[in-house]
Structure formats: C-alpha cells, structure tokens
Amino acid sequence: MNSRDSVAAQYAAHVGPGMARLLSFAGFGVEVRAEGCSVWDSEGTGYLDFLGGFGVFSLGHRHPRVLDAVRRQLEAMPLSCKTFFNPVMAEAAERLAGVAPEGLEYVFFSNSGAESVEAALKFARAATGRPGIVATEGGYHGKTLGALSATGREKYQSAFRPLVPGFAHVPYGDLAAARAAVGPETAAFIVEAVQGEGGIIVPPEGYLAGLREACDTAGALLILDEVQTGLGRTGAMWGCDHEGVRPDILTSAKALGGGVMPIGATLGTHAVWDRVFGENPFLHTSTFGGNPMACAAAVATLEVLRDEGLVERSAQLGAVLMDGLRSEALPLDLVSDVRGRGLMVGVELAMDEVGELLVAQLLKRGVIVAYTLNNPRVIRLEPPLVVSEDQVGRAVAALREAVLETQELLAGVV
Ligand SMILES: Cc1ncc(COP(=O)(O)O)c(C=O)c1O
Questions:
Q1: Contacts from 149-158 at CB under 8 Å and sequence distance 24+?
Q2: Does the beta carbon of 253 sit less than 6 angstroms from any atom of ligand 1?
Q3: Domains, in order of start, for the chain
Q4: Is 156's C-beta closer than 6 angstroms to any atom of ligand 1?
Q5: Residue 337 has what DSSP assignment?
Q6: Statement: the pTM of the whole predicted model exceeds 0.85
Q7: What 3-state DSSP class applies to 150?
Q8: What CA–CA distance (Å, rounded) separates 124 from 384?
Q9: Which residue in the list 11, 49, 225, 248 is annotated as catalytic?
Q10: pLDDT digits over 149-162, tens only?
C-alpha cells in the first residue's frame, strides 16, 4: 500500500508534520522506481530527475555496473569484521587516491558528507596542533555539530548553540578577508570549490589558488569540501582542478556511492596522516565506514566515470544546459541570473519566496528540481552526468513554461 494519502499520513504522524506539509505543497507523490535520469511515482507518472539527489545520482539511478558490483559483494561479504584486512576498502582507497589531486595519498572512509567533514576538521586540528577553523559565509558542510560549526548559515546553527569553539566565517570569494582571518592559530581553511547550498556560487578566478597561498604563509591546512562538486560534477574530476590547486585534505561523498550506496571519504597527504594516525591508528574510526558494499560501489563508480567519459560529458552538457537557460529563461522577468560550472547550475530568481512555487510548477511539467538550502532564491539543476541533450532541451523548455506560469500567478496575486 503506497497510496500518497497513506504515506503522507505516516509522515505527518511519525516523520514530521512540517515535512509532510512541504512535500504535499510542492505536489510530490510517492517515489517507487528509478532508472537512469527518470523517477516514477506510485501513480505511474514519470519525472525527469534534474536534481539528481543533490549530486548523488551522477551516474543516473541504478547504474547496472554499480548494481552488479554491489550485488556480488552482498553475496560474498556485505559488512567487514573490522579485524582482517578489508580488500575492497583497500582497492577503493587506491582507486580514489589514483584520481585525487596530487599528494592526497590516504583515504579514511565514512558514511556521509557530514562525517567526511567531521574527519577533515579533526585531522586538521590533530595535524597542526591548532584550534582555529576558518570557513565561508553561506558555505554548507553538513549538520553534525562540527560540520554545522563550519556551515555558514545562522538559521541552521542558532538552535544548537553553543557550537564547537574556534570557528570563524568570512565572505566567500573574498581573498583579502581570507588572508586577514588565517593566522598562527588557524588549523585550516575549509571551502567548497563552488558553493552549492549557498546558491551555486562560482568563486572569482584565482580564489582557490589565493587560499592555498594564504594557508601556506600561515602554516595552516587547506580543506576542499568536494562532497557536492567532486567526481565530475563541475566538468573536472574535482572542483579544485579548475585552478590546479592541491589541498591538504579533501572530502568526498554523495556521488561516490554511484547512487546506490551511502559512502563518505576524507583524503589527506602523507604529512597529515603521519601526524594524525602515526601513533594511534584508532584515533578516528567508524564502524560502518569502509564497508565492503559501499566500497564496491565506489570502485565501480570510478570505473564508470572513466569508461563513460562522464567528466568530459559534464563539461559538454553543462555548456548546453547553460546556453539553453541563458537564451530561454534569463530574458524572463522572474529570472535574474543563470550561473554554474559543468552540470552544477543555478537559476537565481528576482524575488524571495517564489522558489517553492517554481519547484511545484516544474514538477507539474515532469521535472524534479529544488532550491539551494542556504539560498532559497536559487533553483539548482544537477542532473545525472549521463543526461542526454534531448533531456536537457526538455528541462529547459519546462523551466521556461514554469517561470512564465509562475509570473502569471504572481501577477494575479499582486
Ligand atoms: C559541500 C557539502 N558538504 C557536506 C555536505 C553534507 O553531506 P551529508 O548530507 O551527506 O551529510 C553537503 C550536503 O549537501 C555538501 O553539499
């Protein structure tokens, strides 16, 4: 029994009335099946997935090679004893280090983006013996207490204060502010290569390279949070590759599990690992982190990215999407900007409080999108990297129609 009303009632009674109201308002039904770039609800209606699970479904839904790898691992040994050598984790670590920016040789596996950030923050403090973390306003790094202390939005922080001490925030993209904030007490500067939840903000040219320099000058570490930007999303393997910047620590999650398994990873240099784990390999651990099913999915994901040329595809299709949006949506009154990198694209609206309405209008036209968490004025488009040109065209046309109808609705209200 999957009827929308009964699931909505279960949500209202046991998940949360607020979430039940929000999903109902936007017109979301009950998800039951997915394949490639498509998702179907319990009524049999198909949707084009242009949200891609906030960056999770880079290979599309249910990629056969990932499913196959996970099924095989399920039959052999789904979880690790944690006492033997775990060969699947070792393989995933080697493969991930093999595609990482130079110098990132070691990998700690966890289960989510926030966990990968927690590990990064802890490693930075342990490696430097310093307390300070500098992060960016509007940045998003997750909602566990440490990650939340780095996440730069008061709305998500205020109910949980006091947060972890030692965190400071500077405006994203402002190199002078970053230089002034990084000092002898700074363990690390943590930053996204493109701010995702902050509203798909691409930093000015040279920003990441400037941060690298500022950290080097102060003896601090640079942490690149590539949970959303990593693995081809921005048209390069890593967002920091656009500037050839090598961080000391890099986080990955979301797409790493191929849209099939949850997994997080924190990569670091030999110098970082030596100082963190040199004396005690148990200094930071996770029961389920590095489990064989998730690692089998990660190995298959990295193979698919390479074999299907998805990083290059992201750059090509991203350009098609951006061109389409600039010519079809940007001229409309309600749209104030179209920006992004690769297949990480944001459409900024000229008014507050209409994002949800536009999301609902797009859903009515069979396209799934969402607004960015720290900036509800921005509708984000993060389709699977396997999206076709035809599907991009359909989404752009639907967005244009949805904006036009939203404008009409607003004109009726005002
Ligand atoms: C850049 C970045 N870091 C960390 C996270 C947190 O990941 P998770 O929701 O898996 O904890 C996110 C999630 O959107 C993210 O975009």
A1: 150/117, 150/121, 150/190, 151/374, 152/198, 152/374, 153/373, 153/374, 156/373
A2: yes
A3: 64-307 (3.40.640.10)
A4: no
A5: E
A6: yes
A7: helix
A8: 32
A9: 225
A10: 999 999 999 999 99
Catalytic residue among 11, 140, 207, 371: 140
Mark whether 172 is an active-site residue. no
pLDDT in tens, 287-340: 999 999 999 999 999 999 999 999 999 999 999 999 999 999 999 999 999 999
410 CA distance to ligand 1 centroid (A)?
33
Which residue's alpha carbon is at the smallest distance from atom 13 of ligand 1? 142
Helices and strands: H and E segment counts in the chain: 15, 15
Helix (H) or strand (E) holding 23: helix 17-26
Q: What is the 3-state secondary structure (H, E, C) of 50-84?
A: CCHHHHCCCCCECCHHHHHHHHHHHHHCCCCCCCC
Provide DSSP, 283-313: SS--SSTT-HHHHHHHHHHHHHHHHTTHHHH
Distance 43 CA to ligand 1 centre (A): 31
Catalytic status, residue 155: no
Q: Is 225 a catalytic residue?
A: yes
197 lines ligand 1 (CB under 6 A): yes
Residue whose pair of structure tokens reads 């750059």 in the numeric block: 315
Q: 250 CA to middle of ligand 1, Å? A: 13
CA trace torsion 65, 68, 73, 74 (10° rounding): 140
Q: Is 377 in the pocket of ligand 1 (CB under 6 A)?
A: no
Question: Is residue 149 within 8 Å of 132, Cβ to Cβ?
Answer: no
Residue 234's SS3 state is coil
Ligand 1 centroid distance, CA of 114 (Å): 6
